[in-house]
Amino acid sequence: SDAAVGDELLESASIVASKDDPLDLENLLASPLELPAAEMLPPVQPSDLASEVMFLDEVYEGRHVVFLLDAGLYMVDGEGAIPKFEKMKDALLSSIVNLSPNSYFNLLLYWNLREVSSLGKTILRASQENKKYAIDWIAGLGSESETLKENRNQYYPKELLYAKPLPGVVGPWYGLTTAISFDPDLVFVLSGNLPAFSPKEVPRSHYQALGINPSLREIASSAQNETKSTITPLFRETATKWYVSLPTYKAPSNDSQDIEPLALKRLGISEEQEMILSSSQIPWERAFDNFLTGLEVSFDKIPKTHFFLSLPDHSVWPTGLTNTVREFAESSKGSFVVNPNFP
Q: For residue 100, is pLDDT > 80?
């Protein structure tokens, strides 16, 4: 029965207890049993302390971020360039507005070969006041070359910044060298058709350490004049007909004289041919090597760098520039996106 089973269990328990040594109460009081050690709970991280930056609806890990925006006049020159520049600025504005107050940031504008301007001389706390300065600066750039040229150098010019890139560091590498000097863990580079810079805006000293012979620019100029003199009326007429037949063609007017320069420009034969030849002479691989040589941080300390390249229709970067930018982006565990889908 159940009662018998219970009696047996009690009896066996009493037998075991009688065989065990009695408890030493005095010793137990003098040396109590060790209590389990308390474990620290992980801290609760409020949302405003999160180390995240939003850009184009993507979340990037980082608390110290530098934004680099290409502000060359070529950003508003070319087919479809202005709408793309406006969308690029909107994406940048949205990211800055949504920065956590616990984040730090800086905004740099760069253009041509060796030009840069910075919102802050040091990295800035993402306070409402500092974000407003950045927003006003971006909004004030406008979409016309005159406004862009006037307002892009509004804050700290390169002469007042601590970064002093080596000679031969040009283009996006010049801007990136300056950005890295602020010791960020995240960099966004919003670039455009920088190789289309105008040589008239670039001092000869900016070509230093690139191995470029200045006389090449004169050769390019003479080649341009020679090309102009050999363009026959038949060639002009054929170029105009070809241009009009393009699917992307939009007639500026009914006057064929307005179409002819556009057709020749599309073929690379125009008053700007000197500019095209000069910019194509930049040894971008050498500029990249100069950039790496001048880095003042170890490679494992390089911030994750994300490049967003927005080009006018029918435009491409030189292969040397594209390959080196992609290589650096991948090695920094960043990314390289050509013509992103701006909202």
A: yes
166 closest CA partner among 282, 72, 296, 67: 296
Entry pTM:
0.70
- The chain-wide mean pLDDT, for the chain, equals 81
For residue 18, pLDDT over 70 is answered with: no
Alpha carbon separation from 166 to 15, 45, 280, 332 (Å, rounded): 90, 41, 21, 21
Structural domain spans, the chain? 49-210+283-338, 215-276
What CA dihedral angle connects 225, 226, 229 and 231, to 10 degrees? -110
Contacts 24+ apart (CB under 8 A), 275-278: 275/196, 275/197, 275/198, 275/199, 276/196, 277/220, 277/223, 277/224, 278/199, 278/216, 278/217, 278/220
* Tokens (6 digits) for 156: 């700290």
In CATH terms, the superfamily for domain 49-210+283-338 is: von Willebrand factor, type A domain (3.40.50.410)
Each residue's pLDDT tens digit, 269-324: 654 444 444 455 799 999 999 999 998 877 778 999 999 999 988 888 999 999 99
